[in-house]
Predict the 3D structure of the following.
Amino acid sequence: MEDWRWMTAAELGRKIGTGEIDPVDLTETYLTAINAHEHRDRIYARVTHDRARAEAKAASIRAKAGTRKGPLDGVPISWKDLFDTAGVATESGSALLEGRTPEADALVLQKATAAGLVCLGKTHMSELAFSGIGINPVTATPPNRHDPAWVPGGSSSGAAASVAFGLAAAGIGSDTGGSVRIPSAWQDLVGLKTTVGRLPLDGVVPLCLKFDTIGPLCRSVEDAALLTAVMEAATAPDLTGASLKGTRIAALQTVVLDDIRDQPRAAYDAALEKLKAAGAEIVPFEIPEIVEALNTSAILFAGEAYGLWRDVIETAPDKMYSEILARFRGGANFSAPDYVAAWAKVDAARKLWTERTAGFDAVAAPTAPILPPDAERMLSDHDYYVAENLLALRNTRVGNMMGLSALTLPTGVPASGLMLMGKPFGEEALLRIGAAAEQALS
């Protein structure tokens, strides 16, 4: 049963379908592992034992009766602690929301439950989701699978750790500037950033509604496809026969290679060679005109985030981690004209991006230009924190600022992901390319 913890969600679902795995046994395997794990309280904010067991029992009955609700019926997963859970605290990694207990599940959780997935619990995260690093001295900082000194990546830090440490078949997180892709890359997982508006945000604690998206952190592209389909009550795209032959992939040069560290660069170059060997045409791609738009991110992210949270924050600012507090308060430095002008630049850049990338099937970049920074130094060195946090999010933020779908894949080099960016609402095509790239990289 221990090997179940390292299978993909899709594999587990297939074995439930054939009767090789009972959802009750599977769920107990995960719950036992969670409760015995040395990092349980750093990964899970709350474990929903009773709910998980009840949902597993119902899934087991359906499996035996031949009435399964879908390919992931009975598969246990984790949920980032910004998804509302009925009767269970949802605090978004912040003491400001301590004891906040919703009456209903988030809509995506409702849809997942209706499809038979089992909710194991809520995972820790960066405070109010406003950091790509994953450090949270207010609640807990999850571990990194590679090195106990490294940060886990955020803000979906616990979501990634729950999968990386075999404590969930997959995790559901959110991505506003890279918060699914950064922890996925740094924990050697697959992570999908969906397009804004693709998945409903009802019952999700917001950060920046213009940029907030939901996505899975998981072990395979197939899992990402199935989990995304579950959360919109749709049918997953068929990935059978996915191939890179005849595809054109733009290798982005603008911004994403600046100041890149040696290991992520080597991993990226090697990954592109593998895609090329599998039949993809790799074309170097420059688009310097978008740099000005990318540089408006502080106005747009901090401006909206502080606008949404100012009244809550300023009632008890001492409850916040100082670095996160400073990022929020930075939003007060911008005026309404600044915000409108910034959006005008982004809209123009998005139009240009669409025109320039029309002849490509995807755009590639290193998911992060750096390896996970040292956690202790992040807590003690302000300048280091600010510099590394901005670098960590720089590449992923291209996808958010341009309004794209985006996928990160493990390259086989620890903590060094390959990002593929697709068209807005182009998740199906991106996942097919991702499935072929995954095969080429493995």
Observations:
- The CA atoms of residues 175 and 365 lie 17 Å apart.
- DSSP finds 16 helices and eleven strands in the chain.
- The two ends are 25 Å apart (CA to CA).
